[in-house]
Amino acid sequence: MLSREENELLTQVGPGTPMGELLRRYWYPIAASSELIEKPTKAVRVLGEDLVLYRDKQGRPGLIGPQCAHRRMSMLLGIPEEDGLRCVYHGWKFDVTGACVDMPSEPAESNFKHKVRATAYPCRERGGVIWAYLGPRVELPPLPELRTIDDPGAPMNGLNSLFS
Question: Which of 6, 44, 56, 68 is nearest to 131 (CA)?
Answer without folding.
Answer: 44
